[in-house]
Structures are given as C-alpha cells and as structure tokens.
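Lecture 7, part B: from sequences to assemblies.

Below are the input chains for today's worked example.
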Amino acid sequence: MQPKPVALKVLDIISIILLGVATYLALVFAPTELVMGDVQRVFYFHIGTAWTALLGFILAAVFSMIYLITKDLKWDRRQVAAIEVSLVFFLITIALGSIWARPVWNTWWTWDPRLTTAAITELIYVAYFMLRQGIDDPDRRARFGAVYALIGGLSAPITFFAIRLFRTIHPVVISGSNPEGQGSFSMTPDMRVAFFFALFTFTVIFIDLFWNRILLGSLQDQVEQLKLKVTM
Amino acid sequence: MFFQEPTPDTSGYMIAGYTIAFIVMGLYVLSLYLRNRNLRQDMSMLEELEDSATKVEARSERQVKKSPAEPAGRKSAQTVTKRAKKK
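Predicted structure of the full complex, as structure tokens:
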C-alpha cells in the first residue's frame, strides 16, 4: 500500500483555502447585481464548475483515445477519474443554473437548447458508469468504456456551443452576447476578479480530486489483483 | 432615478444554491474517503490471508521434505497391516 503523496496533501489544503477565498469573493467582495439581486452570485460557481466539467469530459475523450492506442490500463483509470469528477461538477452546474432560473426566468427548468444539451451530457455519463458496472472483464470494460467516452466526449463541445449556435434564452456572458438571452448582465471589474478567481479555484479543485480519484482507481486494481491471487 | 425598480431580494435562492454546491462537493469527498478506507481495509485483510496461505504452504512443503519416499498416511497403513498379519 502506497501512502498518499505529500504533494497531493499540500494540494488538498490549497484547494480548501482557495475554495474559502473564492466563496468570500463571490458572496462578499463582488457587488450585487441590480436587476437580479443576490441570486446572480451563483454565476461564479455555476461557470467555474461548468468549465472544469466540460474540460474533464474532453480530457476523458483524449484519455480514451490514448487507451485505445496503447491498451495501457492506467489511461482507463485516468478516464474514469476525469469522468467521475466532471459528472459531480456538472451536477452542481445544472443545480445552480436551475436555482438561478427560478427568480430570473420564473421557472426551474425549460427545454432550452443549452439546458437540454447539458441534461443529455449528464445522462450520457451516468449511463457510462452503468455500462462499466455491467462488464466484469477489465480489458473489455476498459475498451467499451473508451469507445463510449470518445463518442460521449462530443456532447461537451455541443453543450458549450449550444448558446452560440441555436436560438436560446440562456445568456452569453463570456466572449459574445445573446440579444435573446434573459438574465444577461455586464461584469464590473470586481465581478471579473471574483469570476476569474472562481475559474482558477475550480480548476485546482478538479486537479486535486482527479489525482485523488486516480489513486483510488489504482488501489481498486491492486485489491482486485490480490483477490484473484488469494482465491487461486 | 425615482422610477427605477428596487433590487429584488433573491438571497434565499443564493443561499440554497451555495448550500447545494457545498453539500454535493462534501458528499463526493466523503465518498472518496470512505471508498479509500474500505479498500485499504480489504487490502490489509487480503495481505493477511495471503501471508497465512504462504505459511501453510511452507509448512506442508517442510513435511513433504521430511518424508520424501512415501507419504506418511501410507506408511502407517503398512505398519497396521504388518501387525494384523503377526496376530
């Protein structure tokens, strides 16, 4: 059994500190948006988690490709780790978006292109874990998972570009604007500070959780191998 | 300026949002911790099993080395039949 690396322990502590600072910046430092009120503050965590989740899904597709070329199970472990952490982050994104939509759009949920593609992406990756659960042979499981994650990875850019390609009421706050968007706003310099800090924080937290999950995966494999050795 | 609508009080939604975000993150970290702990317990148990299995194997190998010509059970059976013939 390998002990937890010191660098990872340090990263754990840094992540907690960064999360605390990001929360302070979002809740206290950033000014209140005049039209929407305090609910606009969920935007900082909403974008932060969405960015890392979509990046994680694309990263998983890259790991899948590498696994299919090399057949090395360590890439399978990385792919699973990236998808699991991204799935959790994307769940937070959807939940925060829904809470924001209630006072701003006067509904918890609407079948807007962005919301629909986001829900489909989340469900695709929930199904990914169901698929893996159903296969016992590790090599077969890794191969099926890699092909699935590679195809599923397409849903991430589709979700990202949905508000830029289709008619939607979802606002575009970064890099462009959507005239039909309901709940759009311009960021003040203080809002930008809180926003970019949240992006940075969630990227660090993602790396931290991803690393932890990879270690867990390798421990799982060791236990599986030892089980086989003992039973034979 | 006088006709400007006041900022709505939506702080309840903000609190709900941040609470859910922290709960989901907390649950995930807890699940990582619990899975890690369970796997380490499994690992130490399996290592103990493996150790005891190797000890048993070594003991049986030693017994085989002590009586290399014939197995112990067979020998005792032969002595029993010899005694029976004498009688």
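Note for the exam: The CA atoms of residues 69 and 75 of chain B lie 10 Å apart. Keep this in mind when comparing with the next example.
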